[in-house]
Amino acid sequence: MEELLKRRTDIPLYQQLAEELKEQIAKGDIKENERILTEMELSEKYKISRITVRKALELLVDEEILTRKRGIGTFVSGKKMLRNMNQFMGFTQNCEQNGQKPGTKFLSAEILKAKPSDLKNLQLGDDDRVISIRRLRYCDDMPVIIEENHFPRKYAFLLAEDLNGSLHEILTAHGVNLREGIKKLGVCHATREEAALLGVAENEALLFTKDTTFDEKNEPVYYGKNIINPERYEFSIVASGFTMGERHEA
Prior knowledge:
- The chain has 250 residues and is of the alpha+beta class.
- Helix content is 26%, strand content 33%.
- The protein has helices at 13-27, 39-46, 50-62, 91-97, 116-122, 167-173, 192-198; strands at residues 66-69, 73-76, 81-84, 102-113, 129-139, 142-152, 178-189, 205-215, 220-228, 233-236.
- A hairpin with a 4-residue loop joins strand 8 (205-215) and strand 9 (220-228).
- It starts with 12 loop residues before the first helix and ends in a 14-residue tail after the last strand.
């Protein structure tokens, strides 16, 4: 059925369409993660040009209200999980602090030969082995992170635990008090398995972090890598420094 915008001469048509779509999203007529009509369908529905439709959609994408998925369409953006990088906390605690529901799908737990990165970050010997725990983490029932953490063998007690909850809580219950971590960020592209788990296209750009977490004695507890869907996750970093007038040479 054709629909017409309440055309106002003082507001460009693309802005009127953008406001109309925002209203439909706010009322729940178009829901989170739902695909909206194509440019052609919107053009026909509202009797406006595709160029006007495209400008409206670009505006909403820029405002992060809509998300374009190559070869699939344009979708209503879901609520992202916000990670404050200035605070040390686990995934479960982070979700709960944001008022969101954490979830976990257990993938694997095994004892493996330590990789060079494990030897370095966990301060292990050449012949040491590690406890590898791999899980898919959910926020509000949406897959967000593929998490793989490696622990020194003294943490083998983890293999007897229910690994569908918070590892930090399990460690605390065993007297392991986590104090701080070092996090490195980068960009990667989804493998076939990662794409299937996170619900994205193969080779789509993803974020990754490499984390080393320490206890109160400053000893490494685990080293891990997280593969993250950036459409559902964002980082917040507060940077502070000095002005040029405050700088002092050593």
